[in-house]
Amino acid sequence: MSGLGGQQRRVLQHARLPWDEGVKDPRGARGRRHEHLGLLGLVVAAFAVGKKGLKQAAHLAQDVGARTRKRLGLPLAVAGSTLWRLLTKQLPQGLSQTLKAQVERELKNPRTPRLPLPMGVVSLDGKSLWTTHQGEVKGLQAVANDEAGRELWSLGALRAVLTSVVAAPCLDMEFISAKEGESPAFRQLLPRVVQAYGEHFGVVTADAGLTAAPNAALVRQLGKHYCLGLKANQPTLHEYAVQALADKQCAARARTEQRAHGKTVVRELWTHALKEGEVDFPGARMLLLVRQQHWGDDGSCEQEYRYFVTSLDTTLFNYKQLLRLVRVHWGIENRHHWTLDMVLGEDARQPCRPTRTALEVVAWLRALAFNLLSFFRARLPPEGRYLVEWARACEVLRDSLVHGRRQQTLLPAA
Fold it and tell me: Membrane-spanning regions, if any (predicted)?
């Protein structure tokens, strides 16, 4: 590939993870054949290039060139079982700090592309990490499955994602087991995110499951604005929004149109400005309605209506920016969650899952891998108007890591 030498140098610079001193080696003093951080870095690199299992990660170690291996501290040859034994013992301490250092390094880079918005945006949403009926998972609570009556072990994570950056990096996570809820996790996670990254964003977005007066009040107390989805879980406010916006006879305040998946997608925004005390919801200044229509070439149309409540007003975001803000929030699903599931295999594949601690450790390593891949992809030359496909970004990243390995020539037998 043309220019791979310079590209490889940039990849090595960003692939060298800023491991926190709190990441401790859990192995005994004897028998340490491989460097601890080299093994963890190998797992992150393997996840980032689309390898989903530990055996595949071990194979990557054999493919990586000597220069790359030396710069990143990767092992020369390692068995998948070695990686598995390490992950069963590894503690998560220091991994969140490593993720923070990784993101801060990228945000300081002026070449990191951002979306054109008046303020940065952090989106919070829950995502499943692992759900199983196949025996007890240590450290997780079990709940009865209503459909089959079997015990169900489940672990998810509420994630904070900087969706106003093109790469949509993961900033932090709060883990949620079967009997825990997202709203308590929101109140644990958001103050940490504001403390660590407050200078990079001014708006917090979330789906309707996190829309609650205590959560809205917390956002405002922390000096940020919110844009929260509205559904029937907030029946009074949702019904009021439907009624207030149903009578709007004016044209849409903002409109976008684009082609996607063989259809024309039209999005339109209507707003209702709130007077002080008009609704009983902390800091609410405006209600939003977004109508999304999918028009087929045969004239068929599918449409849906989505409602939002926000503390923003048109002195901070104009109508076009408000419509874009709603779309930016959906980026946590389209750019972040989808990639973790479809490219990194998070929902379907857990390479080490005997305990809750192991699941959490793998989740942190996958978050590091996603950020590595996504920041790399965001800087690749676009294909037309769009970023390169994720699968292609994985291929180019792997080529950049492997490049420089001496090729072995197979000689014919004498």
Answer: none
The two three-digit tokens of residue 247, written as one number:
């009578």
Note the pLDDT of residue 328.
92
Bridge partners for 256 per DSSP: 267
DSSP for 202-269, written as a single string: SEEEE-GGG--HHHHHHHHHTT-EEEEEE-TTSHHHHHHHHHHHHT--SPPSEEEEEEETTEEEEEEE
Q: What is the pLDDT of residue 9?
A: 62
- pLDDT at position 334 is 86
- Pair of tokens at residue 185: 């996790």
What span, in angstroms and rounded, lies between the C-alpha atoms of 369 and 43?
9
Phi, psi for residue 49 in degrees, rounded to 5: -100, 15
Tokens 């710069």, residue located:
71
Distance CA 252, CA 270 (A): 5
Question: Which CATH topology does 112-342 take?
Answer: Transposase Inhibitor Protein From Tn5; Chain A, domain 1 (3.90.350)
The token duo for 244 is: 């207030």
Token pair 């493919």 is found at 63
Q: Which residues of the chain have pLDDT under 70?
A: 1-10, 12-13, 31, 146-148, 247-248, 404-414
Give the pTM: 0.91
Residues paired with 258 in a beta bridge: 265
Domain locations in the chain as residue ranges: 4-95+352-402, 112-342
